[in-house]
Structure formats: structure tokens, C-alpha cells
């Protein structure tokens, strides 16, 4: 039974990805720390934060779905940032591919939650 947003698989995955990103941005070149790293930190935090905030407002369907939309958008944004880090050779290709798979999966799960939210 789901008692809190912390019980949602999408929240748990988004939070774990955020932790990975925050550790990994330290390996970006110094000149990217105020640009790409900042964007990655912001977008990675937005995913779990919007899930948590949306869950608190789930009795208002429109607001709940908007927060899930925002989380999906941040997940998509992270895919672009990870592809950038991969293609500029900032991070190892296999590390990036694993993150991309996880973010794509997260986006799919968020979409399913948005469509079937009343069964949770």
C-alpha cells in the first residue's frame, strides 16, 4: 500500500538518479560547472520534487497531472544533458547509456502513473 510519495517506484528511481547525477557532475570540466552541471543538478532535482509535490495535490487531478508533466519534462531534459556530456566526451559512454536507459524508463513509468493514477 502506498502511504507516501516515498513509496512510489517513480519517486525512488528519480531520487536515486538525482544522487548519481549530483556525484557525477563533479567530474565535468571546470568551465562546465556553472553551466551544464548547474542545469543537470536543477533538472535532476526537479523530477523527484515534482512527484512529491504532485502526490500531495493528487486530490486535484489537474494539478497532480501537471506536476507529473513537469517531472516528465525534467526527465526528458536530463536525457539531453546526458547526451551532451556523452557526446562531448565528459563522461564515459557506457555510464551515459545506462543513465539514458534509466531516464527513459522513468519517463515511461511517469506516463503510466499519469494515465492510471487513480489505481495507486
List the helices and strands and how they pair.
Layout: H1 9-24, H2 36-56, H3 61-87, H4 93-115
Summarize the model shown:
With 120 residues, this protein is an all-alpha fold. It has helices spanning 9-24, 36-56, 61-87, 93-115.
Detailed description of the structure:
This protein has a single domain, classed as Up-down Bundle (de novo design (two linked rop proteins)), CATH 1.20.1440. Helices cover 72% and strands 0% of the residues. It has helices at 9-24, 36-56, 61-87, 93-115. Helix 1 packs antiparallel against helix 2, helix 1 (9-24) packs antiparallel against helix 4 (93-115) and helix 2 packs antiparallel against helix 3. The radius of gyration is 15 Å and the shape is elongated.
Number of domains: 1
Task: Write the CATH architecture name.
Answer: Up-down Bundle
Specify the number of helices: 4
| Computed Rg | 15 Å
Largest sheet: none
Main structural class = mainly alpha
Average predicted confidence as pLDDT = 94
Series of H and E elements? HHHH
The CATH topology is: de novo design (two linked rop proteins)
Would you identify the CATH H-level superfamily? 23S rRNA-intervening sequence
Helix content: over 70%
CATH class: Mainly Alpha
What are the segments in which pLDDT stays under 50 over at least 5 consecutive residues?
A: none
Tell me how many strands there are.
0
The N- and C-terminal alpha carbons lie at a distance of 8 Å
Q: Which of globular, elongated, flat, extended, rod-shaped describes the shape? A: elongated
Strand content: under 5%
Which terms would index this structure?
single chain, 120 residues, mainly alpha, de novo design (two linked rop proteins), elongated
